[in-house]
Amino acid sequence: RELPLRDLAHPALERLANSTGEGAQLYIRSGDDRICVDSVQSKSELRTIVEVGATLPLTAGSAGKVFMAWATDQDRERLTAAADQLTDRTPIGEDLERQLNYLRRRGWAVSSGEREAGVGSVSAPVFGPGGSPVAVVSVSGPASRLGRISAKQYAPAVVAAAHEIEK
Fold first, then answer.
1. Residues near 139 by Cβ (< 8 Å), separated by ≥ 6?
2. What pLDDT digit, counting tens, does each position of 92-102 carry?
3. 3-state SS of 49-113?
4. How confident is the model at residue 17 (pLDDT cuts 50, 70, 90)?
5. Using an 8 Å Cβ cutoff, are 132 and 125 in contact?
6. What is the distance between the alpha carbons of residues 136 and 159, in angstroms, rounded to a whole number?
7. Residue 149 pLDDT more than 60?
8. Which pLDDT belongs to residue 144?
9. What are the b/e assignments for 49-81, b being 16+ CB within 10 Å?
């Protein structure tokens, strides 16, 4: 593939945003953070906005959980130790490995109010040729529409968008 990942992913993000009515984002990992490299905004007046270039932590939010689920054990331990000092909205806890194992089996993650109060999201990995995530696709919006239970309805569309980008 000679085109940059962002160019390859943008049509899938547009379809995802249109089909869900929520904002769609593409993240890559950079050290202990994730960076939004593309974003398609929701047309709804009540929406979340993630700007291209936004740098967010790996230790909160559904996209961060996806990156953590496929991180090395050593990397995950270091991130967990650092996250112990963060707010109570972080997904890090005693049952982190159980959560991440479940996420890997299921293939997608959900969060509600973890990174930002009132914001929910659903994310899925975009796997590269080596079998590791090269990016994460997300939809995000108000937790009133993307709460932990209601977010499950978005998962099939998010996973499908991730698979589309992989091709």
1. 16, 17, 20, 22, 23, 24, 25, 121, 122, 123, 146, 154, 157, 158
2. 555 677 878 88
3. CCCCCCEEECCCCHHHHHHHHCCCHHHHHHHHHHHCCCCCCCCCCCCHHHHHHHHHHHCCEEEEC
4. very high
5. no
6. 10
7. yes
8. 85
9. ebeeeeebbbbbbbbbbbbbbbbeeeebeebbe
Write phi, then psi, for 3 (nearest 5 degrees).
Answer: -85, 150
Token pair belonging to 23? 């904002």
User: Contact at 8 Å (CB) between 162 and 123?
Assistant: no
Q: Which residue carries 């593939």 as its tokens?
A: 1
Nearest to 21, CA basis, from 109, 137, 142, 126: 142
Q: How far apart are CA 59 and CA 55, in angstroms?
A: 12
Distances in Å between the Cα of 149 and the Cα atoms of 107, 114, 157 are 16, 15, 16
Residue 32's pLDDT is 87
Evaluate the CA torsion angle 86, 90, 93, 97 in order and state its sign: negative
The pLDDT of 24-30, averaged and rounded, is 95
Model pTM? 0.88
Q: Residue 133: helix, strand or coil by DSSP?
A: strand
Confidence band for 113, pLDDT divided at 50, 70 and 90: confident
